[in-house]
C-alpha cells in the first residue's frame, strides 16, 4: 500500500480511475513518474482550458513571483487585481455590452455559487431556489442543496431544503412543451411551490452528462424569470471561459443573467480564482457581509489577466474551439452511426462533448481502455453513462486527432 | 473613482480600512504602489505565518513550476502530493503520536469545515452541531451556520439552523462553572436540545476577539464529548500551523480531536490549501462523496511540504513564537497598566494577541492610526472592539519591536 | 360594531361571506337569529355528512351524557371507545377486506395528517414528502407544509420545507402522461429530488377546487409508490365517510393506502374526532410518542359508532349519495350547456361537486346570490373560482332540488 | 387480547398505566365497567378543572342540544359564540384590565400554540423561537419543535429547528442569576443566536415536572422581552382556567403577555376548544390565513360560557383552589419530611402539585400503588420522576383528603 492508500481518506476518487502517479504536465499532455505520456481530454474538469503550465501564463506568474509581487491580499486593493478588473472590463464585459459588478467570493466555484444564492435571497427576501435535474453546483452546503446527484446529496447528512428541481431542457425528449411544469406551478397560487428567489442553471451540464440546453430554451428561461420577478443565475464555472466557444456560454442565447458564476479556467493556470458577477442594481451587500481568506490570490489574478489578453482580445480561440468541437462531434457521430445496434448518442457543444451509452458499464470501460492507451477521460451523468471529452481549448489538431483515435479504439474495444 | 469603486462589489472590505493599492511584499513588509512600506501585523488573516513571499518557499514553488511540475490535479495521485503526505506524516503526525487520515476537501478553510460537518453528521446520523459564542468558521452555508457574527449570518438569506451556540470559555467571566449549561442540557432528556453530532471549536477565537480558551477548558470539552458520544472538531484554520506556538493549537491541552480543520498557513505561501484530518475509524466516505475542483493545487503542496521541512523539523519556530508572543503580551500589558482609567485588556496566546477596548470606536481608531504610521492591523470581536495583532511568525525582533512601538503610539494617540 | 368585529381576530372568515348570526340547525337547514332559514350546501366543510343535529345521533349522545358516560378520557380504555373500535372493525374494515390499525391522533384532521407524516418519516427514515398541486391538508405546521395555497402557506412565517408538489391528475389537461415528471425524477438518481418517505393525496381535492382524480390515476399512484418503496397516505378527511359514495373515497380505485386520515364526518355529529389508520406492519410507535389531550372525546365516539350502525351496515346511503350526486351533476351540466359562451365546468364525484368559472369574481357572486336566496355554499380552488356544492348526504330530494334551483338562479343572476 | 390491543395502535399510553376500562364519571370520580370507583387526581391532564360531567355544565349543554342549537359552525357567527365572547370579555378580560383580541385557532391546545407561533413570526418577520427546558406545547410539528421531551421530539422524523431552549426558572438550583445566558446571548451580536420572534413559556410546567416559575422570574422574562422587542407567549393551556388559583396563571406576576394560549379547561366540560388571545396591535391576520374545521364547536362554547358564569364571577373558586393547594402542599411536605433519608421534593402552585423523586421508578410505583388503591395520578418530568397531583378544582374536601391519604400510603408503600 502506498501513502495515498494508507494516509489519504477514502473520499479520494480520480486516483482510482487513473491508477498512476502524475508528475509533470504541459499543454494537453501529462506525464506520470515513469515518464508515460497521457493525452488530456479532461482538462482539470474544465480548469485548464489553456492547457497545463501554459508557457505564456507561466511566464507572467513566475515574473510576478520573482518580483515579489504580493501573493495573498484578501480584498485589499492590489495592482494585480486592478489589472484583472480593468482587463475583465475592457476585454470581456464592454465588448459584449454587459454591465456587471464583480465580486470575489472565495477561491472556488462553490464560493461563487454560495455568494450568488445568498445575494439572490437577500435581494428578494425569498428563500427558495429553482435548480434543474442533473445540476452540479458544488459541495458546500448551499451549493450542494442545488446539486442533483443523490450520492453527493446524501453526503450532507442533513435534509437539503429550499431547492426544487425542474426538468432541464429536453428532459422528456421533446414530449412536453418547454417549462410546462414550471410555468404552471408559478401561475397557480395553489400549487404549493414556494415563490423562488432565483433560478440557477448551467447552459451545458458537465457533471450531469454533457446536456446542452438549446439557445431558445435559455431564452425561454430568461423570459420566464423576467416575467415572474425571479433572478436568473447562470453557473458558468465549467462552461464559461470559452469552453463552448464564446467567453460566456450564454452568449449564444443573447440573454443577460442577473448573476453569473465564474471559476475554474478564469484563473487561467489552474490556480484557484472565482468571480460572481452581479447586475449593479443587485449590489446590496454590506462590506464584509460575505468574505473569505483566499479571495485575493494575486498569482491567479496575474494568470487570469494574461489569459484574457492572450486569448480573448480577438475571436481566434472562439472560432478554433467551435471548429474543434465540430470535429469532435463529427467523429463521435461517425462512431455512433457505425454501431447502429448499440444505443449511443453524441452530445454537447463547443469542446464540451459527450458520448452517451445506455449501459454505464460500457462508458466506464471506454475510459479504462483510453487510460490504458494513454488518454485521460472521465465519465459523467447520473449513472456515469456518458464519456466526457473536454480537452484543453489549446490542444493541437494532431493531439486532438490522436485523442479521438484512442476514443474510437476504446469504444470499439468495448463493443467488440 | 478608481476601478475598485466602480467595478468591484460593495462587499469588499479590507480595502476600506487600508485605502491604498498594494504591490509588493516580503516577509513582514508590504509596499504600496507609491513605495510606502507597511509592517504587517495581519499576516493574511493567519495565512502568512511564514511571511510574504518567503524566499525558501518561493524557490521551491518556482523550481517546481519551471520544471513543469503538474499544477492542477484534483485528487489524482501526484509526486508533489505524495511528498506532502509523507512530510505531514513524518514531521507532524508521527512525532505527536497522532493518528489521522488526511482529506483534501477543497481550497479553503470553509471547505475543511464543510467536510468536517458532513462527516460528523454522516458518521453519527445526527444533524445538530454545537458551536460557541463568537465562533467563526466560514461563509459557505454549512460553515456560516456555525458562525456567530449576526451581520454575516444575516447574509445567508435563509434561517440558519441545526446549530446551537454554547458559551465559550470565560463567557461569563468566571461566574459559572465550565459547561454548566451544556452538560445540563445534555443530561436532561427533556431539555429540548437536539442530540448533537459534533462540537466545533476554535482553541483561540480569532475573529471572535482573540479569546483564548484555557487548556483545562479544552480538556473538559474533550471529556464531555467523549462521555456523550459527540465528535469533537477543532477548527485550527487560523490558530494551527504554529500561530499559538505548537503546530496544532490544541497540543497544549493534550487532547486528540476527532476531526481537525487546517487551512490558511498550511499552504505556506498563501496559496489555497485545506486539509481535514479525521480519525481513521471515521473514514466512512464513499469515493467522491465530497469533492472539489481546487483540492489538488500542487504548487501549494510544494510550498506546504517545504514549510514543514524548514520550520517544523525542530522546535525553533515554536519556541520563537512563544517568546515573541510573551514579548507582545508584556508590551500590551504595560500599555494597559499605564492607562488604569481606560478599560483595556491584553488577550491571547502565542502570536495571536489582542488589545480589547470597551469602546469599539477606540479600537478602530487605533488601527487607523497604525495604518497612517505604516502598520497593518485589523480589529476583531463582535463589535470590532479588539485590536488584533497577528504578525508573521517569522517576523524579526526588530520588526516586531518597531510594530509594537507603533501600536503603543497609536493607542496613546486615541487616549490622549 | 358587534362583538365579533370588536373582539374576534381578523382571521375570521366564513362570517364575512355569510353576514348573519346563526342559532339553530337541523338536517340540511340552518336558522339565523331572525328565524331566516338557510339550505346547507356546505355541511360544515364536510363534517356534517349526516346533517345538523341528526336526531338518531343526538339521541345516542344525549343518552350517553345523561347516563354520565365518561366524556373526556384521552387514550384510556373506555366502553364507548371499545364500541367504536368494534363497530369500525365490523362495519368498515372487515367487509372491505382492509387490515389497518387505528390511531387516535387528536381531535382534528390536521392531527391525523401530522401523525401520518410523522409515522411515514419514522418508518422510512426519510424526511421528504410528495404532495400535489392544490392540496389541502391542514394548518398546523406539518400539515401546512404539504398544503398548496400560497396565502395559507405564507401564514407559517417560516420557509415550509420537506415537501415537493407534483401535478395532480389532469393538471395539464391531458397534455402529458400520468406521473411523467414524478416517475422521471424518481428514476433519475441525479434529479435532485430528495427520496420521499411518502406521498399524501386527496382522491378529490375539496379546497383545491373539487378536482376528482380518476380511479386509474389513483391506481397508477399506488403502483408507483409500491414500486419505489414510498408510503401512500390518503387524506380522506373531507372525502371519506361517504362523501363521494363509498365509505372510503379510494374504494373506487381498489387500492389500499398504507395510511389513511379520517376526521370531519367520522364523528358523525360535528364533534371533533380524527383517526389515522395504518397498516399493522407500520405500527412502530413508542407508547405516547404522539399524543394529545382531546384524542378521547367519548360523545364523539358514541355519535361515530351510531353513525356507522345507522348508515353503513348496508349500501343505502352509498347508493343514495351516488344518485344524488348524479342529479347534481346533471343540473350543473345543464347549466354549463345552457351558457355555451361562458367558460364553466361541472366537476366532482358523489356529493362533492363544483361549478368552475374562469372568473373567480363570478363564483363569488354566485355564492353571494345564493346566500341572499337562502342557500349556503362556499367557493374553493386556488383563486376561489369554483362554486362548491357539498350538501349533507342525508339531504332530502326536495331540499336538494330546492337548493339546485337556487344555484341555477344564482348562476343565471351573475350571467345575465 | 382485547380490541384495544388488537386494533388500536401501539402509540396508546394512558391505558397501559391504568389497565381497566372506564365507563362513567362524575365530579372527581371515575368508574370502570366493573363498577370500581377511582378518585381522579389527573383531571383529564388539566381539561376537567370543573370535574367530570359537571351537572351545571351538562344541563346547559344538553339543553342547547335538545333545542337544536347549531353544533358545528366553523367561524360563522353564532349566538352561542357571541355569548362566549361577551362572557369572556365581561368576566375574564375587563375585570383584569386585559386588552386582547380572541382567535379560535382549532380545537386543541396545539392549535392555539401553532397559531401563536405563526402570528409571532408573521408580525416580527423572524423565524426563531425561544422555548424553555422541559417545555411541553403539543405534538403538531410547530408545537413539537418548542417541546423539550426527546422521545416525543424524535417522533417528528425530521430535525426540529427554529427553536433554542433556555434554562427555565431555577434550572441550576440558584447557581446562576436569572436569564444570565439568555441576556448575554441577546446582547452579544456575535453570539450566534438567531434573533427571536418570541419566547414561549408555561408559568408552571406540567408535563415538565410541575416546575413552578417564580413571579419575579416571570416579570424578569417579560421585561427582557420588552427590552429586546421579543413577543412573549404564555402557554396557559394546562395552567390557565384557574389551575393555579387565578384564571390566568400569569396574574400572580402582574405581567401582560403579548399572546396567550388557552385550551383544556376553557371548554369546561372536556369538549375541545382552544383560544389564542392576542394584543390588538398584533392582529395582522388575513381573513382565513389560519383556519380549521373544528374551531366552532358550539356545545363547547355553551359549556365554556356556563363555566365562566358559574365559577368566575366571584373569587370563590380561586380562593378554594389556593386553599386546597396549600393543603396538598402541606401533606406532601409532611411526607417529604417524614422520610428525611429519601430525596423527595414537594413542588407546584395552586392545584398543580408534584412530588419529585430522585428515582423515577419510585414515582412510577407510587402511581401504580395509587391505581390499585383507587386513585388516578400520572407521573411527569423528563424521566417520569415526578408524581403529579392535579385533582379537579371542584373536588370536595373529603375527596381531596381521601386522595391524599392514598397518596401517602402509596408513597409509604414504595419506601417501606
What descriptive keywords fit this protein?
416 residues, homotetramer, alpha/beta, seven-stranded mixed sheet, globular, 14 helices
Structural summary, described in words:
Chain A has 416 residues and is an alpha/beta fold. Chain A has helices at residues 3-7, 14-17, 43-46, 55-66, 79-93, 109-124, 141-145, 150-154, 180-187, 215-228, 298-311, 316-337, 360-372, 397-415; strands spanning 21-26, 29-32, 37-40, 77-78, 101-103, 128-132, 163-166, 196-201, 204-205, 211-212, 231-235, 259-262, 275-278, 344-349, 352-357, 375-376, 378-380, 386-389. In chain A, the strands form four sheets. Chain A has a seven-stranded mixed sheet with strand order 5-13-12-11-8-6-7, sandwiched between helices. A four-stranded mixed sheet of chain A has the order 1-2-3-16. In chain A, helix 4 packs antiparallel against helix 11 and helix 12 (316-337) runs parallel beside helix 14. The model of chain A has no long low-confidence stretch (mean pLDDT 98). Chains in contact: A-B, A-C, B-D, C-D. Strand 4 of chain A pairs parallel with strand 1 of chain B.
Amino acid at each position: 500500500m502506498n501513502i495515498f492508500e494508507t494516509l489519504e481518506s477514502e473520499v479520494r476518487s480520480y486516483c482510482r480511475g487513473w491508477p498512476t502517479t502524475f508528475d509533470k504536465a504541459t499543454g494537453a499532455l501529462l506525464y506520470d513518474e515513469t515518464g508515460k505520456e497521457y493525452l488530456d481530454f479532461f482538462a482539470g474538469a474544465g480548469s485548464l482550458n489553456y492547457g497545463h503550465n501554459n508557457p505564456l501564463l507561466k511566464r507572467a506568474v513566475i515574473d510576478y513571483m520573482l518580483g515579489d509581487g504580493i501573493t495573498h491580499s484578501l480584498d485589499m486593493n492590489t495592482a494585480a487585481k486592478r489589472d484583472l478588473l480593468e482587463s475583465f472590463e475592457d476585454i470581456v464585459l464592454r465588448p459584449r455590452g454587459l454591465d456587471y459588478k464583480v465580486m470575489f467570493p472565495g477561491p472556488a466555484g462553490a464560493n461563487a455559487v454560495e455568494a450568488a444564492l445568498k445575494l439572490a435571497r437577500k435581494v428578494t427576501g425569498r428563500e427558495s431556489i429553482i435548480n434543474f435535474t442533473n445540476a452540479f453546483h458544488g459541495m458546500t452546503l448551499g451549493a450542494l442543496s442545488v446539486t442533483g446527484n443523490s450520492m453527493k446529496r446524501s453526503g450532507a447528512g442533513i435534509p437539503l431544503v429550499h431547492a426544487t428541481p425542474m426538468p432541464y431542457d429536453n428532459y422528456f425528449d421533446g414530449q412536453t412543451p418547454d417549462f410546462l411544469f414550471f410555468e404552471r406551478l408559478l401561475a397557480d397560487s395553489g400549487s404549493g411551490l414556494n415563490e423562488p428567489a432565483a433560478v440557477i442553471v448551467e447552459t451545458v451540464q458537465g457533471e450531469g452528462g454533457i446536456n446542452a440546453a438549446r439557445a431558445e430554451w435559455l431564452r425561454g428561461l430568461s423570459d420566464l424569470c423576467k416575467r415572474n420577478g425571479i433572478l436568473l443565475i447562470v453557473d458558468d464555472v465549467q462552461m464559461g471561459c470559452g469552453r463552448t466557444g464564446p467567453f460566456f456560454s450564454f452568449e449564444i442565447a443573447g440573454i443577460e443573467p442577473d448573476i453569473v458564476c465564474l471559476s475554474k479556467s478564469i484563473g487561467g493556470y489552474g490556480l484557484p480564482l472565482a468571480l460572481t458577477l452581479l447586475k449593479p442594481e443587485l449590489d446590496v451587500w454590506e462590506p464584509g457581509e460575505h468574505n473569505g481568506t483566499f479571495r485575493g490570490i494575486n498569482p491567479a489574478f496575474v494568470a487570469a489577466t494574461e489569459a484574457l489578453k492572450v486569448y480573448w482580445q480577438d475571436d481566434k480561440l472562439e472560432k478554433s474551439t467551435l471548429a474543434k468541437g465540430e470535429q469532435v462531434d463529427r467523429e463521435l457521430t461517425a462512431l455512433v452511426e457505425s454501431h447502429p445496434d448499440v444505443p449511443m448518442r453524441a452530445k454537447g457543444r463547443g469542446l464540451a462533448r459527450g458520448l452517451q451509452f445506455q449501459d454505464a458499464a460500457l462508458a466506464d470501460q471506454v475510459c479504462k481502455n483510453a487510460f490504458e492507451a494513454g488518454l485521460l477521460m472521465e465519465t459523467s451523468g447520473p449513472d456515469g453513462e456518458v464519456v466526457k471529452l473536454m480537452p484543453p481549448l489549446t490542444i493541437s489538431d494532431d493531439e486532438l486527432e490522436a485523442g479521438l483515435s484512442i476514443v474510437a479504439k476504446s469504444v470499439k474495444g468495448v463493443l467488440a
